[in-house]
Inverse folding.
């Protein structure tokens, strides 16, 4: 096996997240972390409140995710940079992203369930992947919508 390109660190609660994953998903997550440490760039940049962090798809259905950060390694490390695991868990209801926001201090103040539901509904209404039009989402333009470009970002 090749020498690791990055050091690894994790938020203490992220380690608990890994332990709480179903065993088969946990195994896949550990393999993904090992691949990342050895130089894989199989992650996608996040935006908004988690700008500077990346998501990693864990399972083939993409139902589970990890949130990581590439950051400078401590001075005592043999590596210049490290992969910092912030959260791991299901994508359902944005749970893994909410956990990451809380851990890094970017989560907004306590939000009512109705406000959270409205926020998710609004995000889905703007999604180019939404299946069908909702009230108010029809446009008068005849130009097709440009699909957002999706790129992986190498951190070498």
């Amino acid at each position: 096996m090749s020498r690791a390109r990055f050091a690894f660190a994790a938020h203490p609660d992220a380690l608990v997240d890994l332990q709480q994953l179903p065993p088969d998903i946990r195994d896949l997550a550990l393999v993904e972390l090992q691949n990342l440490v050895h130089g894989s760039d199989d992650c996608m940049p996040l935006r908004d409140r988690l700008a500077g962090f990346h998501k990693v798809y864990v399972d083939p259905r993409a139902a589970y995710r990890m949130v990581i950060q590439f950051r400078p390694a401590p001075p005592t490390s043999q590596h210049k940079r490290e992969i910092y695991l912030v959260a791991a868990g299901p994508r359902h209801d944005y749970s893994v992203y909410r956990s990451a926001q809380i851990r890094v201090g970017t989560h907004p103040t306590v939000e009512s369930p109705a406000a959270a539901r409205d926020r998710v509904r609004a995000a889905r209404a703007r999604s180019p992947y939404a299946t069908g039009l909702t009230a108010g989402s029809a446009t008068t333009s005849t130009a097709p919508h440009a699909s957002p470009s999706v790129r992986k970002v190498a951190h070498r």
